[in-house]
């Protein structure tokens, strides 16, 4: 099987369920967005979170994908930066417990974390303090980080550091890796559209986007957005929520239905798990349709729990679901 290394912001997720969206208005956080917060805003968020029931897990978009892939049996590495603190220790141990080969550099800053506010409809809004994770720089990277891997999976949340992302992609290409990019969040795409375009046309082989991200990048509705993205890379994936997903490679176009679920509890990690399923399928050599079906299974399961940590029993169920579609 092929091997994949993920690269992203090493963030511990702190999740809290809300009874309504009033807090989002008070904090001036657009629903469904990712907001970087400074020290002043951090204190306000901490005060509000202190009054709420919370759940902690290792997170960050690329790390979620890496952990899910490892739980499926994939050979996965992860590259990021943590602080020399309890949160950093927790983070590294959590990834290793999931079977991820960690390449974690350290900083004197506190480890980064993301406060995740979950609305009653399952939509999540991120308030992110980068801390040590934001100090990962282009000079930290070397060819050795990518040696032995087939794919580099990189999250769009890193694109604010242009030098870091370009250096990572250049080194990966020099080592013969294919590059996968998840667009991460519509507001990041809006702010960095030209840079996304440069990367996709010059380096990226596989693009993952949801409908709002695809629109932010192309200014077009879903099907036309898929066509435009696919014209610039090898494989384009546009996730369409309750309608499933669309995949295009060359002239091949596929539409796959989502997994039917009774209740959406929390959409945190849905896109990350979708990418994990898709990459697992590619790593195993399955067809694009099978890859997308596996993606739907993973995404459908993670939205039924709070956070991105699934029980061993649920992973067993996922593997049975995958086995069923492979032998259908």
From TrEMBL:
Molecular function terms from GO: kinase activity
Any Pfam family matching the protein: PfkB
Matches recorded under InterPro entries: Carb_kinase_PfkB-like, Carboh/pur_kinase_PfkB_CS, PfkB_dom, Ribo/fructo_kinase, Ribokinase-like
Entry superkingdom: Bacteria
Ranges for domain Carbohydrate kinase PfkB: 53-311
Keywords: Kinase, Transferase
Leader sequence residues: none
Family (UniProt): Belongs to the carbohydrate kinase PfkB family.
UniProt protein name: Adenosine kinase
